[in-house]
Amino acid sequence: MTLHKKISMSLIASVFALGANLGGAFAQTPIELTLSTYLPPTYEYTWHPIEDFVAEVESKSEGRVKINVFHSGQLFDGYQELGAVSRGDADIVNLTGTYASGTVPAMSIFTLPFLFSDVGHLERALDNGLLDLGITDDLRAQHNTVVLGVGPFDPYQFYSKKSPIVTVDDIKKKVWATTGAMDARSIQLMGGSPTGMSSSELYLSFDRGVIDGTPRPLLTGVGRSLDEVVGYLSLATFGVDTSVLAFNGDKWDSLPADIQEIITTAAQTRDKSQFALVDAFMGEALTDFEAKGMEINQISPEEIENMKAATSTVVEEWLAKVPNGQEYLDLVEATRE
C-alpha cells in the first residue's frame, strides 16, 4: 500500500471514529423533564409511587430521560398545576382532581357528596372507563394535557377543631376550608361557610382560628400534622379524590415512541402501587391519630343519608354543567358492590 493510500485510510478511520464519538456524546444527552407536585414527601402513598415512577423511567430509558422533581409547591401550588402543565411551564404534574374541577367540571365527579362507597369502588369505576367518558379528551383538546394515569387519595372525612361532626346540624355556622367547587357547594347546602384553601395553608389556619373544619383525606391530616391543631375526625366517605399524573401535550408529542411507551408503562405501575398503598395506609393513620389524642367518630348511616338529602342539589347542578353527566353516574352505580 502506498504512503498516499495509508494516509487516506488513516484519515477516513479518524473521521469515522470522530463521528462515532460525537454520536455517542449526542446520544448520552438526556431528555430533561420537569415534574412538579405541590404535595410534600410526607404524603407517603403519593410520594413513593412518584419516586418509583421517576426511577423506572430513567432506568428503562437507559439514561435517555432525566426527570427533575420539585415537590411541596416549590414551583406551583395545587390550584396552579393544571395551568402550568397546559402552558408547558412543567412537563409533568401530579394533579389533584378537585383543584382542576372549576376548569373541567366533569372532574367534580370525585367530590360529588357521598357518591363513592370506598376506594375500591373508585378503582372499579376507573377500570371501566370513567375518565374516558370525556375527561381525558377534554384535558387533551382544551388544556393541552395528556393523562398518563390516575391514582386515589383515601376518602375525604370531616376534620373539626372544637367539636365533633356527628349530625348534619354540626356542620352549620362553621367556616370550612374546601378544595373545589363541589365540596364547597355541599358544605354551603349543609349550612357551613366554605372557603377555598390549599392543604399547605390548613395548619396555620386551624392554629389561628381562621377555620373550624375541613373535609380532607386522612393523608392530609398525616402529611400536614393536623392532629396538632384539630381535636376531632368524623368518618363519612364524603368524597374520594384522584391523583392524576398528567403530561404537557406538546412535549409528549415531541418524544420518541419508545420513550412514550416507557413513561406510559411506568405510570401504570405507579397507579397500581398507589391503590395498594392507600389500603394499607388508612388503618395505620386512624390508629396513629387516636394515639395522638384525636377523637374519631363514625357518622351513622342514618345521618349520612340526611347529609346526602341536604346536598342532593349538588348532583342536579353538576348534571346541568356536564352534558353527559348521567353516563358518569350510571357507570358509578353499575360498579357499586
Second rung of CATH, namely the architecture of the largest domain: 3-Layer(aba) Sandwich
- Helical content stands at 40-55%
Q: How would the global form be characterised?
A: globular
The overall pLDDT average reads 91
CATH superfamily of the largest domain: Bacterial extracellular solute-binding protein, family 7
N-C termini distance: 84 Å
Keywords, separated by commas or semicolons:
single chain; 337 residues; alpha/beta; D-Maltodextrin-Binding Protein, domain 2; 2 domains; five-stranded mixed β-sheet; 13 helices; 18% strand; globular; disordered N terminus
Chain-wise SSE layout:
Layout: H1 3-27, E1 31-36, H2 44-60, E2 65-70, H3 81-87, E3 92-96, H4 119-127, H5 135-143, E4 145-152, E5 156-160, E6 175-178, H6 181-189, E7 193-196, H7 202-207, E8 213-217, H8 218-223, E9 232-239, E10 242-248, H9 249-254, H10 257-291, E11 295-298, H11 301-310, H12 312-321, H13 325-334
Parallel strand pairs: 1-2, 1-3, 6-7, 9-11
Antiparallel strand pairs: 3-10, 4-10, 5-8, 5-9
Helix pairs in contact: 2-10
